[in-house]
Amino acid sequence: MLLRRSTDIKSSEITDKKDYLNRRSLIASAGLLAGGAAFGLAFDIKDAQGAALTTVKSPFSTSDAPTPKTKITTYNNFYEFGTDKEDPSENAGSLKTAPWSIAIEGECAKPATYTLEDILKGETLEDRVYRHRCVERWSMIIPWVGFPLANLLKRIEPTSSAKYVAFETLYDPKQMPGQREKVLEWPYAEGLRMDEAMNPLTLLAVGLYGETLPNQDGAPIRLVVPWKYGFKGIKSIVKIRLQAEQPKTAWNIAAPREYGFYSNVNPNHDHPRWSQKKEMRLDSSRLGTMIDTAMFNGYGDQVASLYAGMDLDKNF
Q: Which CATH number belongs to the domain containing residue 250 in this structure?
Protein backbone atom coordinates (compact mmCIF):
# COMPACT_ATOMS: atom_id res chain seq x y z
CA MET A 1 0.00 0.00 0.00
CA LEU A 2 1.33 3.45 -0.93
CA LEU A 3 1.38 5.82 2.03
CA ARG A 4 0.67 9.51 1.43
CA ARG A 5 1.41 12.81 3.07
CA SER A 6 -1.13 13.89 5.70
CA THR A 7 -2.27 16.76 3.48
CA ASP A 8 -3.20 14.26 0.76
CA ILE A 9 -5.38 12.08 3.00
CA LYS A 10 -9.09 12.73 2.58
CA SER A 11 -11.16 13.24 5.71
CA SER A 12 -13.36 10.34 4.67
CA GLU A 13 -10.30 8.11 4.85
CA ILE A 14 -9.28 9.01 8.39
CA THR A 15 -12.67 8.98 10.10
CA ASP A 16 -14.75 5.95 11.02
CA LYS A 17 -15.17 3.37 8.28
CA LYS A 18 -18.45 1.49 8.47
CA ASP A 19 -17.18 -1.23 6.19
CA TYR A 20 -14.08 -1.65 8.36
CA LEU A 21 -16.11 -1.94 11.55
CA ASN A 22 -18.57 -4.30 9.86
CA ARG A 23 -15.86 -6.73 8.88
CA ARG A 24 -14.41 -6.55 12.39
CA SER A 25 -17.77 -6.97 14.15
CA LEU A 26 -17.61 -10.77 14.12
CA ILE A 27 -14.19 -10.63 15.76
CA ALA A 28 -15.47 -8.20 18.36
CA SER A 29 -18.58 -10.22 19.16
CA ALA A 30 -16.45 -13.33 19.60
CA GLY A 31 -14.01 -11.75 22.00
CA LEU A 32 -15.71 -9.04 24.06
CA LEU A 33 -14.13 -8.32 27.42
CA ALA A 34 -16.35 -6.28 29.71
CA GLY A 35 -15.71 -4.11 32.77
CA GLY A 36 -12.57 -5.31 34.57
CA ALA A 37 -13.06 -8.92 33.52
CA ALA A 38 -9.55 -9.22 32.10
CA PHE A 39 -7.77 -7.48 34.96
CA GLY A 40 -5.28 -9.59 36.85
CA LEU A 41 -4.12 -11.61 33.82
CA ALA A 42 -0.47 -12.25 33.04
CA PHE A 43 1.72 -9.15 33.13
CA ASP A 44 5.32 -9.91 32.24
CA ILE A 45 7.11 -6.54 32.65
CA LYS A 46 9.32 -6.58 35.74
CA ASP A 47 11.49 -4.06 37.56
CA ALA A 48 15.27 -3.79 37.49
CA GLN A 49 15.65 -6.58 40.05
CA GLY A 50 13.39 -8.91 38.08
CA ALA A 51 10.58 -8.63 40.61
CA ALA A 52 6.95 -8.73 39.54
CA LEU A 53 5.29 -5.33 39.67
CA THR A 54 2.34 -4.70 41.97
CA THR A 55 -0.83 -3.45 40.30
CA VAL A 56 -3.60 -1.60 42.15
CA LYS A 57 -6.93 -0.05 41.20
CA SER A 58 -6.84 3.69 40.60
CA PRO A 59 -9.27 6.28 42.01
CA PHE A 60 -8.96 8.19 38.71
CA SER A 61 -10.90 5.60 36.69
CA THR A 62 -14.14 6.41 34.93
CA SER A 63 -17.16 4.22 35.64
CA ASP A 64 -17.89 3.89 31.91
CA ALA A 65 -17.72 0.37 30.50
CA PRO A 66 -14.46 -0.27 28.65
CA THR A 67 -14.35 -0.67 24.90
CA PRO A 68 -13.88 -4.34 23.93
CA LYS A 69 -10.24 -5.33 23.78
CA THR A 70 -10.60 -6.51 20.20
CA LYS A 71 -11.49 -2.99 19.06
CA ILE A 72 -8.77 -1.35 21.16
CA THR A 73 -6.17 -3.61 19.55
CA THR A 74 -7.41 -3.63 15.92
CA TYR A 75 -8.61 -0.03 15.37
CA ASN A 76 -5.52 2.11 15.87
CA ASN A 77 -3.68 5.21 14.73
CA PHE A 78 0.03 4.39 14.66
CA TYR A 79 1.35 5.80 11.39
CA GLU A 80 4.74 4.17 11.92
CA PHE A 81 2.97 0.98 10.82
CA GLY A 82 0.60 2.44 8.21
CA THR A 83 -2.24 4.93 7.88
CA ASP A 84 -5.21 2.56 7.81
CA LYS A 85 -6.77 1.66 11.14
CA GLU A 86 -6.00 -2.05 10.76
CA ASP A 87 -2.39 -1.53 9.63
CA PRO A 88 -0.82 -1.38 13.13
CA SER A 89 -2.32 -4.70 14.25
CA GLU A 90 -1.21 -6.30 10.97
CA ASN A 91 2.29 -4.77 10.76
CA ALA A 92 3.50 -4.11 14.31
CA GLY A 93 4.73 -7.63 14.90
CA SER A 94 8.07 -6.49 13.47
CA LEU A 95 8.70 -4.23 16.49
CA LYS A 96 11.17 -5.60 19.02
CA THR A 97 10.27 -4.20 22.44
CA ALA A 98 12.95 -5.87 24.60
CA PRO A 99 15.49 -4.76 25.54
CA TRP A 100 14.23 -1.16 25.62
CA SER A 101 15.79 2.04 26.90
CA ILE A 102 14.81 5.69 27.16
CA ALA A 103 17.28 8.59 26.95
CA ILE A 104 16.40 11.32 29.44
CA GLU A 105 18.02 14.62 28.56
CA GLY A 106 18.03 18.33 29.19
CA GLU A 107 17.07 20.37 32.22
CA CYS A 108 17.27 17.80 35.00
CA ALA A 109 19.75 16.67 37.62
CA LYS A 110 19.87 13.04 36.51
CA PRO A 111 20.12 12.82 32.71
CA ALA A 112 21.01 9.33 31.53
CA THR A 113 19.86 6.46 29.37
CA TYR A 114 17.63 4.25 31.48
CA THR A 115 16.37 0.76 30.72
CA LEU A 116 12.65 0.21 30.95
CA GLU A 117 13.28 -1.93 34.02
CA ASP A 118 15.17 0.95 35.65
CA ILE A 119 12.29 3.31 34.95
CA LEU A 120 9.82 0.88 36.50
CA LYS A 121 11.99 0.26 39.57
CA GLY A 122 9.94 0.75 42.71
CA GLU A 123 6.76 1.69 40.84
CA THR A 124 3.32 0.44 41.73
CA LEU A 125 1.31 0.17 38.53
CA GLU A 126 -2.30 1.30 38.44
CA ASP A 127 -5.32 0.07 36.52
CA ARG A 128 -6.85 3.26 35.14
CA VAL A 129 -9.96 3.22 32.96
CA TYR A 130 -9.76 6.40 30.88
CA ARG A 131 -11.95 8.03 28.28
CA HIS A 132 -10.11 8.72 25.02
CA ARG A 133 -11.20 11.08 22.25
CA CYS A 134 -9.64 11.01 18.79
CA VAL A 135 -9.72 14.16 16.69
CA GLU A 136 -11.25 11.99 13.96
CA ARG A 137 -14.59 11.94 15.82
CA TRP A 138 -14.35 8.53 17.49
CA SER A 139 -13.61 7.60 21.06
CA MET A 140 -12.89 4.63 23.31
CA ILE A 141 -12.83 3.70 26.99
CA ILE A 142 -9.47 2.03 27.66
CA PRO A 143 -8.34 0.22 30.83
CA TRP A 144 -4.65 1.16 30.96
CA VAL A 145 -1.94 -0.19 33.22
CA GLY A 146 0.73 2.37 34.06
CA PHE A 147 2.13 4.93 36.47
CA PRO A 148 2.05 8.74 36.71
CA LEU A 149 4.59 10.54 34.54
CA ALA A 150 5.09 12.83 37.54
CA ASN A 151 6.74 9.96 39.43
CA LEU A 152 9.49 9.68 36.82
CA LEU A 153 9.96 13.44 36.52
CA LYS A 154 10.39 13.81 40.26
CA ARG A 155 13.04 11.09 40.26
CA ILE A 156 15.14 12.83 37.60
CA GLU A 157 14.83 16.19 39.41
CA PRO A 158 13.87 18.89 36.88
CA THR A 159 15.74 22.19 37.13
CA SER A 160 13.96 25.53 37.44
CA SER A 161 14.52 26.03 33.69
CA ALA A 162 12.41 23.00 32.76
CA LYS A 163 9.13 24.43 31.43
CA TYR A 164 8.26 21.69 28.93
CA VAL A 165 8.68 17.96 28.44
CA ALA A 166 9.42 16.72 24.91
CA PHE A 167 9.04 13.11 23.76
CA GLU A 168 10.26 11.10 20.77
CA THR A 169 9.18 7.76 19.33
CA LEU A 170 11.63 5.13 18.11
CA TYR A 171 12.88 5.79 14.59
CA ASP A 172 13.69 2.52 12.84
CA PRO A 173 12.19 2.05 9.35
CA LYS A 174 13.25 -1.60 9.33
CA GLN A 175 10.95 -2.29 12.25
CA MET A 176 8.41 0.44 11.50
CA PRO A 177 7.58 0.25 7.78
CA GLY A 178 5.40 3.37 7.83
CA GLN A 179 8.52 5.44 8.48
CA ARG A 180 9.75 4.60 4.99
CA GLU A 181 7.20 7.11 3.69
CA LYS A 182 7.06 10.84 4.41
CA VAL A 183 3.59 10.82 5.91
CA LEU A 184 4.93 12.79 8.88
CA GLU A 185 8.30 14.18 9.91
CA TRP A 186 10.06 11.31 11.69
CA PRO A 187 10.72 10.54 14.45
CA TYR A 188 7.29 11.28 15.85
CA ALA A 189 7.55 14.05 18.46
CA GLU A 190 5.21 15.34 21.14
CA GLY A 191 5.34 17.69 24.08
CA LEU A 192 3.60 18.89 27.21
CA ARG A 193 3.90 21.89 29.44
CA MET A 194 5.53 20.94 32.75
CA ASP A 195 2.34 21.45 34.75
CA GLU A 196 0.44 19.21 32.30
CA ALA A 197 3.14 16.57 32.60
CA MET A 198 2.99 16.71 36.40
CA ASN A 199 -0.80 16.43 36.55
CA PRO A 200 -1.75 13.15 38.28
CA LEU A 201 -3.93 12.14 35.33
CA THR A 202 -0.94 12.03 32.96
CA LEU A 203 0.17 8.43 32.65
CA LEU A 204 3.03 6.41 31.25
CA ALA A 205 1.27 3.22 30.19
CA VAL A 206 2.91 -0.19 29.87
CA GLY A 207 -0.21 -2.31 29.57
CA LEU A 208 -3.94 -2.48 28.94
CA TYR A 209 -6.71 -4.83 30.01
CA GLY A 210 -4.37 -6.24 32.66
CA GLU A 211 -1.83 -7.42 30.10
CA THR A 212 1.45 -6.15 28.68
CA LEU A 213 0.89 -3.37 26.13
CA PRO A 214 0.44 -4.74 22.57
CA ASN A 215 2.83 -3.43 19.93
CA GLN A 216 0.04 -1.77 17.95
CA ASP A 217 -1.02 0.23 21.02
CA GLY A 218 2.43 1.69 21.68
CA ALA A 219 4.56 -0.98 23.35
CA PRO A 220 6.50 -1.09 25.47
CA ILE A 221 5.75 2.36 26.96
CA ARG A 222 3.59 5.25 25.81
CA LEU A 223 2.08 8.50 27.02
CA VAL A 224 -1.60 8.81 27.98
CA VAL A 225 -3.11 12.28 28.50
CA PRO A 226 -6.87 11.67 28.75
CA TRP A 227 -8.10 15.27 28.44
CA LYS A 228 -6.28 15.78 25.13
CA TYR A 229 -6.93 14.36 21.68
CA GLY A 230 -5.44 10.93 21.12
CA PHE A 231 -2.55 11.99 18.91
CA LYS A 232 -0.88 13.54 21.99
CA GLY A 233 -0.42 9.99 23.34
CA ILE A 234 3.00 9.35 21.80
CA LYS A 235 3.89 5.65 21.52
CA SER A 236 7.05 3.53 21.81
CA ILE A 237 8.94 6.32 23.58
CA VAL A 238 12.76 6.32 23.38
CA LYS A 239 13.57 9.90 24.43
CA ILE A 240 12.29 12.35 27.04
CA ARG A 241 13.84 15.82 27.13
CA LEU A 242 13.16 18.56 29.68
CA GLN A 243 13.59 22.00 28.16
CA ALA A 244 12.84 25.70 28.51
CA GLU A 245 11.28 26.23 25.09
CA GLN A 246 8.03 24.83 23.71
CA PRO A 247 8.85 21.67 21.73
CA LYS A 248 7.81 20.99 18.17
CA THR A 249 5.15 18.31 17.76
CA ALA A 250 4.55 15.98 14.84
CA TRP A 251 1.03 16.96 13.83
CA ASN A 252 1.59 20.66 14.46
CA ILE A 253 4.56 20.48 12.06
CA ALA A 254 2.50 18.56 9.48
CA ALA A 255 -0.66 20.69 9.61
CA PRO A 256 -0.43 23.69 12.00
CA ARG A 257 -3.81 25.04 10.94
CA GLU A 258 -5.47 21.80 12.08
CA TYR A 259 -3.42 20.62 15.05
CA GLY A 260 -2.23 22.97 17.78
CA PHE A 261 0.32 22.38 20.50
CA TYR A 262 -2.22 22.06 23.29
CA SER A 263 -4.65 19.69 21.56
CA ASN A 264 -7.15 19.84 24.42
CA VAL A 265 -10.54 18.30 23.73
CA ASN A 266 -12.66 21.37 23.03
CA PRO A 267 -15.97 20.69 21.25
CA ASN A 268 -16.36 24.45 20.68
CA HIS A 269 -13.25 24.58 18.48
CA ASP A 270 -14.06 22.89 15.18
CA HIS A 271 -11.42 21.12 13.19
CA PRO A 272 -11.16 23.01 9.86
CA ARG A 273 -12.75 20.04 8.07
CA TRP A 274 -15.36 18.83 10.56
CA SER A 275 -17.20 19.56 13.78
CA GLN A 276 -15.87 18.28 17.11
CA LYS A 277 -19.22 18.49 18.92
CA LYS A 278 -20.12 14.80 18.51
CA GLU A 279 -18.14 11.57 18.70
CA MET A 280 -18.72 7.90 17.95
CA ARG A 281 -18.01 5.89 21.10
CA LEU A 282 -16.69 2.49 20.05
CA ASP A 283 -18.34 0.00 22.38
CA SER A 284 -19.83 -3.49 22.32
CA SER A 285 -22.48 -2.46 19.80
CA ARG A 286 -21.87 -3.14 16.15
CA LEU A 287 -20.98 0.37 15.01
CA GLY A 288 -20.67 2.30 18.26
CA THR A 289 -22.84 4.96 19.90
CA MET A 290 -22.99 8.64 18.94
CA ILE A 291 -22.60 10.95 21.96
CA ASP A 292 -21.90 14.61 22.70
CA THR A 293 -18.24 15.53 23.16
CA ALA A 294 -17.43 16.87 26.63
CA MET A 295 -15.02 19.74 27.29
CA PHE A 296 -11.60 18.38 28.28
CA ASN A 297 -13.08 14.96 27.49
CA GLY A 298 -14.97 15.13 30.79
CA TYR A 299 -11.86 15.80 32.92
CA GLY A 300 -12.51 19.51 33.44
CA ASP A 301 -12.66 19.27 37.22
CA GLN A 302 -9.07 18.00 37.25
CA VAL A 303 -7.47 20.12 34.51
CA ALA A 304 -9.49 23.25 33.65
CA SER A 305 -7.45 25.30 36.13
CA LEU A 306 -4.32 24.65 34.05
CA TYR A 307 -5.73 26.88 31.31
CA ALA A 308 -7.36 29.65 33.37
CA GLY A 309 -7.34 32.89 31.41
CA MET A 310 -6.27 31.26 28.13
CA ASP A 311 -8.28 31.57 24.91
CA LEU A 312 -8.71 27.90 24.06
CA ASP A 313 -9.97 28.73 20.59
CA LYS A 314 -6.59 30.32 19.80
CA ASN A 315 -4.50 28.01 21.96
CA PHE A 316 -5.99 24.85 20.52
A: 3.90.420.10
